[in-house]
Amino acid sequence: MPVALCRPGLLLSFITVCSCLDPDCVLGTVGRPVSLPCLYPNISTSVNVSIEWRRGEEVVLRSDWGEDGQWDRRSSDSAAISADAALTGNLSLLLPSVDPKEDNTYFSLFIVSEGKQSAAVCTVCLTTAASFSPPLLEREEAEQGEEITFRCHSTGGFPEPAVYWLINDTEKPPEGSVRTWTTALPDSNLYNITSHLTVNISKDSRVSCMIENQSMNQNLTSTSYGVERGPLNQRASEAMWIFSTALCVVVGIMVIVGVVYQIHLDRISKRKKKTYRQHQQGRDRHHQNREETEVMKPASKETDV
Ligand SMILES: *[C@@H]1O[C@H](CO)[C@@H](O)[C@H](O)[C@H]1NC(C)=O
Ligand SMILES: *[C@@H]1O[C@H](CO)[C@@H](O)[C@H](O)[C@H]1NC(C)=O
Ligand SMILES: *[C@@H]1O[C@H](CO)[C@@H](O)[C@H](O)[C@H]1NC(C)=O
Ligand SMILES: *[C@@H]1O[C@H](CO)[C@@H](O)[C@H](O)[C@H]1NC(C)=O
To answer: Residue 66 CA: which ligand is closest?
Structure first.
């Protein structure tokens, strides 16, 4: 009931659900074991005492502790408490497998001493939940016109989920465009959910279907992209486009730089050649002069000798 009151709103509701549920509720996952906590340390000082775990009025487990310290246990549904419960005072009830039918069930522990039953020592409520399968989203275009139907299907979860549709990640679908069916699977009490969205939108619109299981704090989303271009293709082609443009620009710049550099080099080499030639001519002249002087030198040396 409190969950129903807290349904509207997305983010806020989770906080509200947590605060409006019984603080002693334990969430059990369907098909998995769960421990319903109860600590009662005083039990170790009592003798001739029995404990009873009850689900509503039904006794799920009974243990008698006699003077010899022997526990005599009887239980249904393979419910159990730890073997040293009397010593540790940890009387937590272990259920081997949670059933969705046990959702919102109260379990209470009573102590029976000298034929008298105490008030409930512990009361724990059990809520149950199971994960839904990732939603399967299909699109079907009408033979004529712009109308597209999206079908979203998910199965095997608990409790009944909420379904949300989003167009282009943010827009809510127009009123009256969504139809949702929820069916309980007869053998397991788990839910199948199918939701249809029929809208007039352009084909490249993105449509998402979200299955929300508040109890498990689970949100499963499936998105359908436009028919022509898948998300990966689109991204890949975008990437290719960016890459090829970048490559063209880089190659273009390199070519321009190369040409400019070549022109520059040509100019330098021309200038160099010119100056080299001038220099060479100068050097030639100088060389000739030196040769002349050198030719003259030995003569002077010889004259010294
Ligand atoms: C416990 O029960 C036994 C018989 O069932 C009785 O003999 C014994 O006196 C009882 N002990 C106490 C402390 O009541
Ligand atoms: C009590 O026992 C259960 C298992 O039976 C265990 O999961 C839990 O942690 C125990 N609690 C404490 C406080 O020891
Ligand atoms: C639930 O969904 C499963 C898988 O899609 C399907 O095989 C089954 O018939 C559905 N059950 C009901 C009751 O709708
Ligand atoms: C969604 O986005 C696509 C482009 O990203 C646009 O063509 C289309 O019209 C949009 N659809 C709606 C319903 O706004």
So the answer is: 1
Partners of 220 in the beta sheet?
211
| Ligand 1 pocket member 72 (CB < 6 A) | no
Would you say 104 and 127 are in contact if contact means Cβ atoms under 8 Å apart? Answer: yes
| 57 Cα–ligand 1 center, Å | 28
| Alpha-carbon separation of residue 89 from 108, 109, 124 (angstroms) | 16, 13, 17
Dist CA 20 CA 16 (whole Å): 6
For ligand 4, mutation pick of 169, 204, 224 (most atoms within 8 Å of CB): 204
Does the structure show a pLDDT above 70 at 202? yes
CA of 122 to the centre of ligand 1 (A): 26
pTM flag (> 0.90): no
40-91 tens-digit pLDDT: 988 777 778 888 999 999 999 998 887 666 667 777 778 999 888 888 889 9
CB-ligand 1 contact for 240 (6 Å cutoff):
no
Distance, in Å, from the CA atom of 211 to the CA atom of 265, rounded to the nearest integer, reads 69
Terminal C-alpha separation, the chain: 132
Pocket-forming residues, ligand 3, beta carbon under 6 Å: 155, 183, 185, 192
* CA 114 – ligand 1 centroid, Å: 9
- Alpha carbons within 13 angstroms on the beta-carbon side of residue 13 total 16
If one residue of 168, 177, 200, 227 were mutated to test the ligand 4 pocket, choosing by the most ligand atoms within 8 A of its CB, it would be: 168
Cα dihedral angle (50, 95, 35, 115), rounded to 10 degrees? -10
60 vs 7: CA distance, rounded Å: 33
Q: Could you tell me if 29 and 129 are in contact, meaning their C-beta atoms sit under 8 angstroms apart? A: yes
Q: How confident is the model at residue 287 (pLDDT cuts 50, 70, 90)?
A: low
| Residue found by looking up tokens 């990640």 in the block | 169
User: Whose Cα sits closest to atom 11 in ligand 2?
Assistant: 90
